[in-house]
Amino acid sequence: MSRFHVHLNVADLDASIRFYTELFATQPTVRKPDYAKWMLDAPRVNFAISNTGRAPGIDHLGIQVDSSEELTGLGQRLDAAGGTVVPEDAAICCYARSDKLWTEDPQGTRWETFHTMGEATTYYAGDSACATDGAACTPDVAKMQPAPAAGEGACCAPASACC
């Protein structure tokens, strides 16, 4: 079953956590010094906020799925919708490990479709993310290039938790 995803950049994380905790009538599922996330069932949404230095407002929208098969199906739908679809496999982003597909709608709104496989101890794995030219977590899709295949000059150091 899929879940709608919204990620907002906020200027004041504590004030925003208070606001959304009251609005959703529940504490965040994940709370870190620069990030908070609510996994809501009514409405079914993965709602995240962060204050990582980006301009306040909508960072990106997305769809979270429960399996790699569902992500493959979403990838086919993104291809049919047009635009560039860039995979980001085994990404460390937003304190989670996920396989992702990034694209933009005709207005330039970034869309992230993803399957999360587990938690991570950092917001992102560093500045050497594959497929994103070092801009892990909501990269500029227009500038992204597909990750090199294994053995073709991978962009990340061995054991960097990136690739």
UniProtKB/TrEMBL annotation:
UniProt-listed InterPro entries: ArsI/CadI-like (IPR049789), Cadmium-induced_rsp (IPR052393), Glyas_Bleomycin-R_OHBP_Dase (IPR029068), Glyas_Fos-R_dOase_dom (IPR004360), VOC_core (IPR037523)
Pfam family, one: Glyoxalase
Coiled-coil annotated residue ranges, if any: none
Residue ranges annotated for the VOC domain, each copy included: 2-116
Signal sequence, renumbered to the chain: none
PANTHER family noted in UniProt: CADMIUM-INDUCED PROTEIN CADI
Protein name, as recorded: Glyoxalase
Annotated source species: Noviluteimonas caseinilytica
